[in-house]
Amino acid sequence: MDKTKALELVKQQLPEKRYIHTLGVVQSAKELAHRYGVDEDKAELAAIYHDYAKYRPLDEMEQIIKDDGLPADLLTANTELWHAPVGAVLVRREAGVEDEEILSAIRYHTSGRAQMTELEKVIYLADYIEPGRSFPGVDEVRELAARSLDEAVMKAIANTIAFLMSKQQTIYPDTFHAYNDFAMHKGGHRNE
Ligand code: DGI
Ligand code: FE
Ligand code: FE
Q: Does the keyword section mention Hydrolase (predicted)?
C-alpha cells in the first residue's frame, strides 16, 4: 500500500485535529520502530490507519462488532475502545490492508493486551507520546521511550489505568492483562 494514498484515505475519514494527531503518531512510530528494530514501513502504515474508525457512528461500530465476530464483551465496555478493533476490520475491508501484524497493531492500539508484539507496542506508545500530546506524565513516558520500549509501554498502560480509575471508569480486561504481563515478565512478547 502506497503511503500517500493511505494518508489521503485517512484524511477523508478524520477531522483536521485528528489528522494532525495521526501525523504525529506516524512520526513517533517511525522513530520508535527505527530505535527498536521494528519494521518501519509496517509501523508507518499502522500509525497512518490507527484511528481510521474513530469517527464512525456508534451504531455502525456496534453492528460491526456483532457481525464480524469481535469479542462480545466490547458491547458492554467503554465505547471509546470500539474504534480500535472496528478500525482493524474497516482498514482491511476499505483500504485493502491484509497484513495481520499491521491489523493487530490497529486492533490493540487502545487497550493493549497480554503478549503484545513489538509492532503493537510501538503503535501503542507512539499514540501515547506523539508530539501533540500534553497530558500529565507524558514527558516521563517520553524519557522512558528513549531507553526501554517495554518500560515505556508499561508506564503508559499504568497511567491510563490510573486515569480511568480516577474517573471511576471501567477498565477493559485486555488493559489489565497487558499491565500484568509487563509487570510479571518485564517484557513478554509474541512472534519475535
Ligand atoms: O484514539 P486516541 O484518542 O488517539 O487514543 P486511544 O485510542 O488510546 O483512546 C483513548 C481513550 O480510550 C481514552 O479516552 C481512554 C479510553 N479507554 C476507555 N476504556 C479504556 C480505555 N483505554 C484503555 N487502555 N483501556 C480501557 O479499558
Ligand atoms: Fe485511537
Ligand atoms: Fe490515536
A: yes
